[in-house]
Write a structure and sequence with these properties.
The longest helix is centred in the last third of the chain and has 16 residues. This protein has five helices and ten strands. By secondary structure, it is an alpha/beta fold.
Length: 166
């Protein structure tokens, strides 16, 4: 398998963004819901898109949390990884999309070639583990406060990663 997208969603927002990403890429990309499928299939993929939402004060979404020990055993050497995360910049300004940063740290440590960094322009938050060298480590979506910008952000991001992820 070449490219696959893995996500988990408690409220449906991350699932919706995952579907919109696949549609924007314009390819038949296999999607996996971590809650139902786990993360075993990641090992069979060369190119991977991972989606996570941040809960509470910077926590991974529950299904990611439940699969975390298995996820941490995956060798990402030679794999290209693009990341997307959802968060609430107004309600959780000090840990905005921290779960995205947690995923990034793990795949980076495990040898992944991470692509798809995006600008922090247009966001209003205090801190984020998902910021590295002044950029977010992937696509960042705030469906609570900026849902009107989601599709535009998805399209810009998928256009930037398309040649590397497909």
């Amino acid at each position: 398998m070449s490219t696959a997208l893995f996500y988990a969603s408690s409220t449906g927002n991350t699932e919706d963004v995952a579907k919109r990403i696949v549609a924007s890429l314009g390819e038949d990309i296999k999607t996996y819901d971590i809650a139902n499928d786990g993360c075993d299939a990641i090992s069979n993929c060369e190119k991977i898109i991972l989606g996570v939402s941040t809960w509470g004060e910077g926590d991974l979404q529950d299904d990611w949390e439940d699969s975390w020990s298995d996820f941490c055993e995956i060798d990402f050497s030679g794999k290209t990884v693009a990341l997307f995360g959802l968060g609430d910049q107004e309600g959780y300004a000090e840990e905005f999309v921290d779960a995205l940063g947690t995923l990034y740290e793990q795949v980076q440590t495990a040898g992944a070639n991470v692509i798809g960094f995006t600008s922090t322009d247009g966001y209003d938050h205090d801190e984020s583990k998902a910021q590295v060298d002044g950029q977010f480590v992937g696509l960042v979506v705030d469906e609570d406060n900026q849902d009107d910008l989601t599709q535009e952000r998805i399209e810009a991001w998928t256009n930037s990663i398309k040649t590397s992820i497909l």
